[in-house]
Fold each of these.
Amino acid sequence: MQDGREYHLEPNTFMLLFPQHIHGGTYPASDKQSHFWCHFYLPMQMICTSNTAVTCSDTEYVLPEFGYIQKAEKFRLLFRQLIDASQNKYPSPASREYICNAYTTIIIHELCQEWMRQNGNTAPSGITSSGIVEKVREYIRLHACTEKISIAELAARHHYHAGYLSEIFHKETGMTIISCIQNIRIEEAKKLLLTTDAHVDTIAHLSGFGDPKYFMKVFKKHTNVTPTEYRYAYYHIHENNH
């Protein structure tokens, strides 16, 4: 989280933590999670907002606080080159600093371009369908398991017509809003089934399904097994491995 706003970091996402702002974790990370990170300074005054516009001469750079990376391998390569440069024994420390700064600058430029492409090359104050969908997806990720979410409620919260929001969401993600909500709830249910001894009815409520029967119907549709069968299969596999 940053300044009290929570984010869900998943594969191919990035986040910038701005100086002199409050940030920290809100939930234990997965054992399989890995990420690249670095610290950098900008030789200019910044106004830190959700999508910060930094002006240098006649060029405007957008440093988004959080977003998705479509070409993740390019960023992985740049970060590996940055790490390699930081550990390389150059003739002088100044040479290493110059090269590391160059790679960091490229990464910042690429993040800016990535954000501009996803938002239709608009100014930071503008917003396109990609920006709308990103905000809705983030809200769903944070609240799907703890709140009742409907398309009408999402549309009203984000000040859009329900039909329009449904259309652009499907166009941008390839799935419906309801499918997105169900996917997140099912993944939470899977985790609870394997990490707790809670009854299936309890798990239904904890993962955002108010009706246990509806939960079991949706779970089987997504996994081809019932919640109980899913839990049993996991433990059965581990028993066979011993």
Amino acid sequence: MKFGVNTWVWVSPLTTAGIAELAPKVKQMGFDWFEVPLEGTEDIDYKQAAAVLRDNGLAVSVCAAMGPDRDLIHPDKAIRDNGMAYLKHCIDAVSTLGGTNVVGPLYSSVGRVWQMTGDERARDTDLVVQQLRILADYAGAKGAVLGVEPLNRFETSFINLASQAIEVVDRVDRPACKVMLDTFHMNIEEQSLGAAIRAAGRRLVQVHSCENDRGAPGSGHIPWNDVAAALKDIGYNGPVVIESFTNKVKSIARAAAIWRSLAPSQDALAADGLKFLKQLLA
């Protein structure tokens, strides 16, 4: 099993210089996986970043940042098309970086919530399945894999549960389209984290880990033994990536509702979380 960290723990947006600064720190902390959140499409020189990550012995994934102009099921076709172009950029980026996984809420803008009738949900589900098939074919041709992430009800009204992500992924029916689960969102939405993980089963390509308050894993009340048992039951051996945020970066603080420090320092959040996860899962 690989243990990683998303650089939103420290900085936003991530740049080539930021990767050069953070990669040695992440490696020294004991991580073997480095997650690149891709906010802007011109912030990073991917070839240069790939060399830095390779030199530090770090595997890599890309986390999509689905903003208001990147939405695969928006009523405005221009926004849908921009979302598709952005996710193809993410796929190209992870390929150049030397990784495979592109993960996140690969369907709609984070924070967009709207009331749907049954017919409207069925229409939007049909649309996202069509869009993700195109993206999965594109990803598969480049050796990449999509990880569709359910978010909690306050960040989307579309896919909140593992079962909803599973329905979409099964309908997409492509080897390069799988599920990613996040313990923070699951803690809000799932009746059982273990049952959700077991339901995802072979579809699970990546796990985001943080506490119920988005703090360091092990510092709150997430049922981690339930998570560990379920991961063992499905034979999961993929990356477990700490995803949290700093309240010092205002754009991220607002988007993720991070209004206070979640640990004595961001380094402590990453280091303490890694120590806990290794004891739990390694």
